[in-house]
Amino acid sequence: MPRKPLVAGNWKMNKTTAQAVTLAQDISNLYDDRLDGVDVVLCPPFTDLKQVSTVLAYDKSRMTLGAQNVCWERSGAYTGEVSPEMLHEIGCLWCIVGHSERRAYFGETDGLTAVKALALLNEGLTPIICVGESLELREQGDQAAEDFVASQVLNSCSGIPGAELSRIVIAYEPIWAIGTGRTATPEQAEASCAAIRAALARNSGPEVAEAIRILYGGSVKPENAALFAPMPDIDGALVGGASLNARDFIDLAKGFIPR
Ligand code: PGA
């Protein structure tokens, strides 16, 4: 079965609630029915989730909601944290985990990413597990980068039972391409995504690997989206900067409508 493309907007730490409502409304107004062929996901900050969820419900939108982070525990004394159940109740179907910014600034590891992903799956949410190599690694050669991200994926989903694994989404985001305006070439991105899929196939069997959606992320824009979309192992995009502009985000998502 062909994998349905997925385009997720990662708003990062941008937009107050009032600004988020405006952006969600603007995106919703530009939504085109042809985008029903793509899973379009908005991932605002925690504080905006409720209001963005209300906008989507009011518009009977086919877009869905995701968070950017989650706690691995169900409840308890974890000051400042937000549980999978809380995200579920507020209407999130998705949650980004292991983003390179969380790894770099908050010390998050593959192991922590894996337990967060499992906690999300247990609550019925889909984790979008991020991986990606540094510039230093890429400069050691394409093979080194591909080997690194393949092992990062396996470590970041260790402990997820086989039956659940096909539900996860992977986002391949080379760190040197995030927010820099510098993208991987479509061929480089495809080679990394193919290496990730091959590693998943070796680990969990070809059927599971074929079902998992793998996104590319890193300076995806309306102008370059259509270059990544035809790549056989790229099933969509995780978008930062361009997701903060309604027109750009929608135009970019349209680049992934199946032809
Ligand atoms: P960018 O961010 O599109 O601004 O490069 C992507 C991401 O960090 O998810």
Question: What can you tell me about this protein's structure?
Answer:
This protein is of the alpha/beta class and 259 residues long. It has one domain (6-73, 80-254): TIM Barrel (Alpha-Beta Barrel). It has twelve helices and eight strands. It has helices at residues 17-30, 46-58, 84-90, 100-106, 110-122, 135-139, 142-156, 162-165, 186-204, 206-211, 222-228, 246-254, and strands spanning 6-10, 39-43, 64-67, 92-97, 126-131, 169-172, 213-217, 236-239. It has an eight-stranded parallel β-barrel, surrounded by five helices. Helix 2 links the parallel strand 2 (39-43) and strand 3. Helix 1 runs parallel beside helix 2, helix 7 (142-156) crosses helix 9 and helix 11 (222-228) runs parallel beside helix 12 (246-254). The chain is globular. The mean pLDDT is 97.
**Could you say which structural class the secondary elements and strand pairing correspond to?**
alpha/beta
Biggest sheet, spatial arrangement of strands: 1-2-3-4-5-6-7-8
Helix content: 40-55%
Head-to-tail CA distance between termini? 15 Å
Radius of gyration: 17 Å
β content, as a range?
15-25%
Mean pLDDT: 97
What is the CATH superfamily classification?
A: Aldolase class I
The main β sheet shows up as: 8 strands, parallel, barrel
Unreliable residue runs: none
Q: Would you tell me which CATH topology applies?
A: TIM Barrel
Tally of contiguous helical segments: 12
The figure for the number of domains is: 1
Count of β-strands? 8
What would you call the shape?
globular
CATH class placement: Alpha Beta
Helix-strand pattern, N to C?
EHEHEHEHHEHHHEHHEHEH
CATH 2nd-level architecture: Alpha-Beta Barrel
Q: List bound small molecules.
A: 2-phosphoglycolic acid
